[in-house]
Every structure is written in structure tokens, then in C-alpha cells.
Design goal:
82% of the residues lie in helices and 0% in strands. By secondary structure, the chain is mainly alpha-helical.
């Protein structure tokens, strides 16, 4: 019974939420950057001069992983984990956990979707290098939803922490 009380506690749920945000957004970004990298490598095998144009297209789907890490940092700071003063009730821990879910899920799925658009953009740049800006804009459109999820998670974490927004 003692172990169950420690496992089902506020700090554990808060840490799980932060870990989920970093983990799922990071996995989505890693998968997406990898799939875009395969297309970019094929293009560069044919024309190495396009590296500069394709580097940003390659990097774009990696931002969701960064956003997940930002949410994790907010949990670590607002939950008191970095200052050594962790006093989180079970209810507050569950709220922190829920606050992290938008970034976890939207981060994962938007990274995968952005990777598909970015891979297609790399193919576009391969055939028409002057169309790089269009490829970037199309991939950046998917980014919008990851940014919305980041805002929802961060603002909710701050609200749960008691900060006036």
C-alpha cells in the first residue's frame, strides 16, 4: 500500500505529463526528420549544390521535439522539481498531466504530417529549386498547430501553477 501511494502521487503524474510531452513530440520529430532526410539524401545524390536549399526543409519537422522539451522544462520548473521543493497534490499533478497532453499528441501527429509535407517539398525543390519558399510555406502551415498546442500546454501549466495569465 505504501508503494501505491508513492506511485499514484501528484509529483509522479506531473513528471509523467512532462515526459509524455517530450517523448511523443520527440518521437514524432525523429520519425519525420528521418523520413525527410531519406528524400533529401536522394536529391543530394543527384545534385549536391541543393544542400543549402534543403537544409531548412529537413530541419522543420524537428521543432515539435523542441516544443515538447519546452513543456517538460515548464513542468520541471513550475512543479518545483528543479528547486528541490516539490509539493504537488494528486489533483494538481493530474492537472499538470492533462496540461501536457496537447503538446504530446499534437506534437507527435503534426511532426509526422509535417514530415510528409516537407518530404514532398524536398521533391519539389529537386525539380524546381526556385520554388523553395513555397515548399517551406507549405511545411510551415502544419507547424501552426504544433505552436497552438505548445501555447495551450504552457498556458495551462502556468494556470495550474497559480500564475495569473
Amino acid at each position: 500500500m505504501f508503494a501505491l501511494n508513492q506511485i499514484a502521487s501528484g509529483p509522479v503524474f506531473a513528471l509523467l505529463g512532462g515526459a509524455f510531452a517530450a517523448l511523443y513530440a520527440g518521437i514524432g520529430s525523429a520519425r519525420a526528420v528521418g523520413s525527410v532526410g531519406s528524400v533529401v539524401s536522394g536529391v543530394l545524390a543527384e545534385d549536391p549544390e541543393k544542400f543549402g536549399k534543403l537544409l531548412v526543409v529537413q530541419a522543420l519537422p524537428g521543432t515539435q521535439g523542441i516544443y515538447g522539451l519546452i513543456v517538460w522544462f515548464f513542468i520541471m520548473i513550475q512543479g518545483g522539481f528543479m528547486g528541490g521543493n516539490v509539493e504537488i497534490s494528486l489533483a494538481k499533478g493530474l492537472l499538470y498531466f492533462l496540461a501536457c497532453l496537447p503538446m504530446a499528441f499534437v506534437g507527435y501527429f503534426s511532426a509526422i504530417s509535417q514530415g510528409k509535407v516537407a518530404a514532398d517539398g524536398a521533391s519539389l525543390v529537386a525539380k524546381r529549386p526556385e520554388q523553395q519558399s513555397k515548399a517551406l510555406i507549405l511545411a510551415a502551415m502544419v507547424e501552426t498547430y504544433a505552436i497552438f498546442a505548445l501555447l495551450v500546454s504552457v498556458l495551462t501549466i502556468l494556470y495550474v501553477s497559480g500564475l495569473k495569465i
